[in-house]
Structure formats: C-alpha cells, structure tokens
Amino acid sequence: MRECGILLPVASLPSPYGIGAFSKEAYEWADALKRAGQGYWQVLPFGPTGYGDSPYQSFSAFAGNPYFIDLEQLIAEGLLTKEECDQADFGPSRRYISYDRIYYERFPLLRKAYERWKRNMAVDEGEENGKAEYTDRIQAAVHRLSEERLIRETREYCFYMALKDHFQSKSWYLWESDIRLRKPEAMESYRRLLSDDIGFYEFQQIKFEEQWQALKAYANEKGIRIIGDIPIYVAFDGADSWCHPELFQFDEENLPKAVAGCPPDAFAATGQLWGNPLYDWGYHRETGYEWWIRRMEYSLRMYDVVRVDHFRGFESYYSIPYGDPTAEFGHWEKGPGISLFEALERHFGAELPVIAEDLGFLTQEVRTLLKASGYPGMKVLEFAFDDTEASGYLPHNYSENCVVYTGTHDNDTLAGWFDSLSEKDQSFAREYAGSLCVPQKELPWQFIRLALASPARLAVIPVQDYLGLGTEARINEPSTLGKNWKWRLLPGEVNEELLEKCRRMAKIYGRLPCDPIQE
C-alpha cells in the first residue's frame, strides 16, 4: 500500500504559550492531515531536553518533555488560571521558540499546577490542613499514583531530575560520591529529602502521558499514525547512564572509557565528538537485550512506527577515547548486529514497525544488516543531485521497501538546498525533474512530485517544503549550537488551499488512504 505523511515536530506547532504542545492546535493539525489525504505524522523524539535543546540529547529515554504539556488543559482542570499563563513572557517571536524564556516561565507555572493538584488529592484522601502527617500522606499518595501510572524507568528519571535540581543542575558525575555511585544509604536519604520534588516531576510525567495518549488516540481515530524516533545513544548527563551504569562502557568510578562520534571526513576535519556513552554490548547480549526490549515497549506506546536513528551504529560504531578533545583518534568496534533485532522480534512476536535511518556512508556490512532485518531504509532527495549523476538516492533507483523524504530535520529546506547547489547540479536537478522552465519559487513542488511518484512505499515531506520556505525555516544544522530546533508554524499558515493541493497530489500518485486504485 502506497502512503504519505508530513514531518512536523510537536514543538513546531503554533501555540500562544511559546512552544508547540498537545493543545487544540495539535488536534487541529491531526484534522488537517486527514483533509490533506495523509496517513502519517512524523515527529521528533519526545524526551526532556537540556543544554542545546536537542531532542537527541535527552535526560531520559523513558520520559516525555514537560514543554509539551498543554497549559490550556491545565487551565480547564482548574490547576492554572488563564491570567497566570497570559502573564508569562515566553519570548517576542511567534515564529521562533525562545528556549530560555520557556525554561524560566514554564516550570514555575507547572509548579503552581502541581501544588493545586496535590490539594485536590488531599480532598480525595480526606485529609485536612493542620494535621501533622498531612504532607507525608499527600506525598505518599502522589508516589502511589505514579507507581500506578508510570513505568520504573520514568520514575527513575523523576528522582534523577530532583537530584539534579538539588545539585544546581550539575550532571551526576559531579555530585557527591555517595549518591553519584548510588550507595543504598544515600539513595534512601535523598529520596526522603527530595520526596516533594520527585513528586513534582512525577506530576509532569503523569500529565504528559495523559495528554499525549489522548492526542494520539484522536489522531489514530482519524487514520493518522505517528512516526517517532529512537535515538541510538542516550545522554551521559541523564537518568539512563546514572541509574544503569552496567549498560555502558564505564570504569569503576562510573566514568566512560570511550564515547560516541564520527570519524574525520570531508565535512569535519577532526570528526564529530558526540560524547554519548557507548553501550557494553556484551552485557546487553547476556541479558537478552532486556533494556532494549523495555525501550522498544515504551517507544511503541508513544508511537505507531519507530524510526531507529543511526542504524549503522548497530553494525559497527566509532569509539573515541574519553577525554579526547576531538574525534580524530577513534576506532571502529563491532555492534550487536542482527542479534538485537532478532531478540526484539522474538519478544514482540511479529515484525516491528521500524524505519531504519541508514543515511551517510554505508559499508557492505551495513547493507547486509539492513537487508537481514527487512526494515525499510531511508532515501533523501536532497542527496541525489550531484555531479556524478549516478546517486542511489535518485528515485529511479528506489525499491518499494524504503521511505523517501525530500529532506529530514537535519537538512535545509528544499528551497534553501536548491539555492546552495552549484550551477551544474541545479541544471541536472531541473533536467531530472523535467523543470527546466519552471520558476524557482515553484521548484519545491517538482521535487515533492518526484518523491510521491517514486516506487517508495511511504513518502514523508517536511511541512516547510509544502510551504516553499527557505533556509530560515530549517529545523537543525548538525554540529552547530544556538540556532536549532526553534522554527514554528504560524497560525493559519497551512490553509485549506494547501491542504487540498496536498490531497490532490496524494491521489494522483496513488497514496491517498482508501484510494480505489489501491483496492
């Protein structure tokens, strides 16, 4: 079945409160996708973000970003007032997210909501202010509710964040040694000391889960499935590495022996030093990949389809000595290979709904792994038009078992990309698309046509390309800081005329859901 969808991060939805959220605008977006003849909404990872605001550097692989909690729903529940939300300063721009303002304004609002939520629980518990045991009983009720509603790893994240706040936002490897090394006495002592702060983070995750599951159910009822991400690595400054050091290549002090990155190439003379801890794949294999099974279970609760980021790292990964200032002196190590994916499929009892992000330089071993997995890989049109005129990313080279994108969140928009091409590559791209005489402002639609007309079973187009926007609408430029993950849609920017055009294109190329041609 040929299908299509649109890539739009949740953070990029329009919102009166500074960042896209699980709000009425998100429900309206699901309605718009339905009217546009789309079957998929692709989002970026949902994890809580830290320095740099990247969803690929999250404080946990098992938690949701509190920035996405819809404040208007909290108003409707009586946990906040509209006046409180309207008085917050979320930044001057409707187009670009001001993450510093979001950080300083959102958490105080969520704290107010938490205090009122606890008071509501107090009524339910039948307690009265003034009783000596009041606070302890309410905190116990909060934690009981979190145990019912949240999985273990999510509660671990809540403890981690409470500790991180206690230690003035320092990463865990800079904490006092007893809690850094998770000594039992220290763990119990800090749990008692920070009980209310832990409850605050549990409240955030409960609300995140409530709101996202309601929105996902609504989208699914409309026939829209959600594509989300599993980043291959987790952050060193995160709950996963602090709570489970045995999963990683750590020394006796729980510090990395080596970290992740990419070797030097034509784009980066000293390589890319990502700094993520590397997995101890021998340990994972001995445990039957239990942690990865838990991670996939969580991801499949969040999403309908999971895009596995940096797929080539499961065949072999680049290992850089910890402490090196660049990635120049790393080396390649073997990853788990097909055994990981076989373990996952044995557990779930079926082929997983996975897209393999197989971009970049691929060895024959990586191609063999992808073929053995059976997962569709990715094709990106922006990679196709170079002066060799023989790229595997040209649509006539695709098989059905792939997902085609005009570009991803890491690419420039189509309009910005075309402007950056050499005159020779522009000429070839126009010739291939049959667009020698098409005005440049109309060119994005020519490449969208190529994607939709290709043999690929699924085509996903970033919304910026349907809008014909330039580099100013780019989501991320890898290896840069300060300008990424900020772009947002404006209210009304995706209008009915555009939706009808998207629907018509989906129909023309046999990608419209329930199209009689496909029956």
How would you characterize the overall build of this protein?
An eight-stranded parallel β-sheet has the order 9-6-3-2-1-12-11-10. Helix 6 (152-166) crosses helix 9 (195-221). It has 519 residues and is α/β, with parallel strands linked by helices. 41% of the residues lie in helices and 11% in strands. The protein is built from 19 helices and twelve strands. The protein is globular.
Q: What would a concise description of this structure say?
A:
This protein has 519 residues and is of the alpha/beta class. Helix content is 41%, strand content 11%.
Secondary structure layout plus pairing:
Elements: E1 3-7, H1 24-35, E2 40-42, H2 71-76, H3 82-87, H4 99-125, H5 134-149, H6 152-166, H7 177-180, H8 184-193, H9 195-221, E3 225-230, H10 239-243, E4 258-262, E5 272-277, H11 281-286, H12 290-302, E6 305-308, E7 316-321, E8 331-334, H13 338-348, E9 354-356, H14 364-373, E10 377-380, E11 402-405, H15 414-420, H16 423-433, H17 443-453, E12 458-462, H18 463-467, H19 496-508
Parallel strand pairs: 1-2, 1-12, 2-3, 3-6, 6-9, 10-11, 11-12
Antiparallel strand pairs: 4-5, 4-7, 7-8
